[in-house]
UniProtKB/TrEMBL annotation:
Source organism: Xylophilus rhododendri
Pfam families: CMD
Superkingdom as given in the UniProt entry: Bacteria
SUPFAM superfamilies according to UniProt: AhpD-like (SSF69118)
GO molecular function, one term: peroxiredoxin activity
Signal peptide: none
Domain Carboxymuconolactone decarboxylase-like: start-end pairs: 39-100
Designated name of the protein: Carboxymuconolactone decarboxylase family protein
Lineage, uppermost ranks: Bacteria, Pseudomonadati, Pseudomonadota, Betaproteobacteria, Burkholderiales
Length: 171
């Protein structure tokens, strides 16, 4: 890691934020240990990602497929390894997850609604711009709140993966 992680419990001034992170995540992962070097960023990050994960209108398995696809596109192994078990627990199949890792198999086993969100994920991650035709396909299948939730999920996990990769944060 390029920035040393902060061992939980070693700085009393971080106790409140560490407790909040542990309550939401069940542990303080290496990602959060690095973020604790900037307590305001760690606090804001935790609140944002908790909203993305726990107050999202997308089905849990679909949300996790989107996150796994972002991890694949950004070569964020830590993110991939963290979210595959969550995706499986949420009901995604291993075949769908495996297909996200191979551009020649994208779409295999996915519903039309899942497929269009994976295409949205690819567009937002690879080129930022979302073509009008793709956006219209997304809107035909999802209401406005779901579109916002999907786009925030994709954007947020691009932030996560880019932070992880840039700072060499792994297991």
């Amino acid at each position: 890691m390029r920035i040393a992680p902060i061992e939980p419990g070693t700085r009393p001034e971080l106790a409140e934020i560490e407790a909040s992170i542990a309550q939401q995540r069940g542990r303080i992962s290496p990602l959060y240990q690095v973020l604790l070097n900037s307590p305001p960023m760690a606090a804001g990050w935790e609140k944002m990602l908790t909203a993305v994960r726990r107050h999202n209108t997308l089905p849990d398995d679909v949300r996790e497929l989107v996150i796994v696809r972002v991890a694949v596109l950004n070569h964020a192994r830590f993110e991939y390894d963290a979210h595959v078990p969550i995706a499986l627990k949420a009901g995604a199949t291993q075949a769908k997850i495996d297909a996200l890792d191979d551009d020649s198999r994208i779409g295999e086993g996915l519903s039309e609604a899942e497929q269009v969100l994976i295409e949205l994920t690819d567009a937002m991650t690879r080129q930022l711009d979302v073509p009008d035709a793709l956006y219209e396909r997304v809107r035909a299948l999802y209401d406005e709140r779901q579109v916002v939730d999907a786009m925030v999920t994709i954007a947020a996990y691009n932030m996560v993966s880019r932070f992880l990769v840039a700072l060499h944060i792994g297991h």
